Each structure stands twice: as structure tokens, then as C-alpha cells.
Structure to design on (135 residues):
């Protein structure tokens, strides 16, 4: 009798185990190493939220940088080459000279035969290299 009860319990457990095994979620691998020639994550794979480089862990976007340094690079290049420049102000006046220095708010122009000027950047409409055609 004891043997029959042990056998019936094992059969019941096997039946339970089979019913649970049918419910198990099986995730197939979408990336096949033998056919996958790209080196990044596949098109269907998603990054985890904490792996995203464009956002800090708090979830807020990082503000854009205050300066891209493109303006600084341009001024440095013109200063080192002592390039003659034409600065056109918002009122249409043209100032010819060489940029001596600059900061966040203004530039200093050295002029031949005229006093040097410090020009506030907000008053500048545009500038170009002397000898190039005006816009």
C-alpha cells in the first residue's frame, strides 16, 4: 500500500511539473552569431534605461553645452594668421582691421591709420576676411 501511495505521488508531481513546464517563457535569441556580421546591438534589442548615454541617471536631459568652441577656433585662427578682417555692424558701418583679442562679450580690432576699437559682439551683424566678396 505504501508503495502505491509513493508511486501515485510521484505521478502527480510529474503531472504538475509538466503543466508548469508548458507555461515557461522561452525567449529565442534573435541575434545568430553565425549570421550576424554587425558588431553593435541588433535592431530589435533595446538598451536598459541606465545604459543610455544621453541622459544622466536621474532621467533628465543634459542641457546643451554653452559653447561649441567653433567661434573660439575661428577667432584664434584669424588672430594667429593676422588676417585682415571686415566687421559689418548692425547699422551697416564697416570696420577694417585685424583681430587682436576677444572675450565672451567683445573683440578688439587693430586698425592701420585709425584708433583701435573694442567692439561688442551683439553689435556685430557679420564679419568676413578682407578680399573675399561681401555677402
Amino acid at each position: 500500500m505504501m508503495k502505491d501511495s509513493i508511486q501515485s505521488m510521484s505521478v502527480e508531481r510529474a503531472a504538475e511539473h509538466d503543466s508548469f513546464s508548458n507555461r515557461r517563457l522561452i525567449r529565442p535569441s534573435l541575434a545568430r552569431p553565425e549570421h550576424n556580421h554587425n558588431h553593435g546591438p541588433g535592431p530589435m534589442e533595446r538598451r536598459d534605461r541606465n545604459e543610455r548615454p544621453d541622459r544622466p541617471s536621474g532621467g533628465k536631459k543634459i542641457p546643451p553645452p554653452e559653447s561649441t568652441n567653433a567661434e573660439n577656433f575661428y577667432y584664434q585662427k584669424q588672430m594667429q594668421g593676422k588676417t585682415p578682417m571686415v566687421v559689418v555692424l548692425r547699422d551697416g558701418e564697416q570696420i577694417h582691421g585685424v583681430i587682436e583679442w576677444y572675450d565672451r562679450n567683445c573683440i578688439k580690432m587693430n586698425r592701420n591709420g585709425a584708433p583701435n576699437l573694442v567692439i561688442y559682439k551683439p553689435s556685430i551683424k557679420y564679419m568676413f576676411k578682407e578680399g573675399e566678396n561681401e555677402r
